[in-house]
Amino acid sequence: MVRGGCGIALGVFGWVVALLAGQALFNALLYPLVDAHDYQRSWGGPTLVGAWLVHAAVAVPVVVAALGVLRGTVAADRAHERLVSVGRRPAWPILLSAVVAVGSALLLNAWLHQL
Q: What residue ranges are annotated as transmembrane (predicted)?
């Protein structure tokens, strides 16, 4: 049961990270279609090209960091699975999953409130 709870917490965290990275990538690639308004007050404005480049320059590191976070999440889940399969019940995955679950809720809440 604990293994399942840890897996669910890490899975939800992975989905939240993927959602935010996907939105950043979508906004960067399709900026003129997504945010077609006054570029005077936009990052990189006053031109469309400047705003588009700045949004892409911010999104690329965000997506790269998200891929690294997802890779680390998978590594943590596999390490926990290996330890459980040999009969050990380590405490760190439970603590990590609790922190990740709270972090996921806070991150998703912050993202929803910025809309």
A: 7-29, 49-70, 91-112
Contact of 27 with 51, CB cutoff 8 Å: no
Total tally of structural domains belonging to the chain? 1
Could you give the CA distance from residue 26 to residue 29 in angstroms, rounded to a whole number? 5
Domain with 21 in it: 1-113
Instruction: Give yes or no for a contact between 56 and 28, defined as CB atoms under 8 angstroms apart.
Output: yes
In tens, the pLDDT along 31-45 reads: 878 776 767 777 777
Q: Rounded distance, CA 20 to CA 109, Å?
A: 12
